[in-house]
Specification:
Radius of gyration: 14 Å
Number of helices: 1
Shape: globular
Number of strands: 8
CATH class: Mainly Beta
Strand order of the largest sheet: 1-2-3-4-5-6-7-8
Helix content: under 10%
Number of domains: 1
CATH topology: Lipocalin
Length: about 110
């Protein structure tokens, strides 16, 4: 039964989320995403174990999917969708689906 509650209207989702995402050609991607109440975000990614410029910062606006379950970082190439849970953001794949398999737990950012 749908009682109208979703991540957008039921959770305290604003704040800063951090985690280490997997990387195919580096030691990992240290990721920090801040979601603000005004619909803006800041994202900082650092590719560990790579030479040269390895830290990138982006800012922009985010929106919610129609069901209020995940946020979409506008101006970002996919993967740019994150499922919002209690004090966590889970990166979705480029098709907007939850990542499964052995590495699934590594795609979670925590407050």
């Amino acid at each position: 039964m749908d009682d109208g509650h979703n991540s957008r209207n039921s959770l305290s989702y604003t704040g800063t989320y951090k985690g280490m995402l997997p990387c195919a050609d580096c030691a990992g991607v240290e990721t920090v995403i801040t979601l603000n109440e005004d619909g803006t975000y800041a994202k900082k990614t650092t590719y560990l174990g790579k030479g040269g410029k390895n830290t990138f910062e982006e800012k922009g606006k985010y929106s919610w999917n129609s069901a209020g379950q995940y946020v979409i970082l506008k101006g970002q190439e996919a993967p740019n969708q994150y499922l919002v849970g209690e004090n966590i953001l889970t990166q979705l794949d480029i098709s907007g689906q939850k990542i499964e398999g052995d590495l699934a737990a590594m795609y979670v950012l925590k407050k």
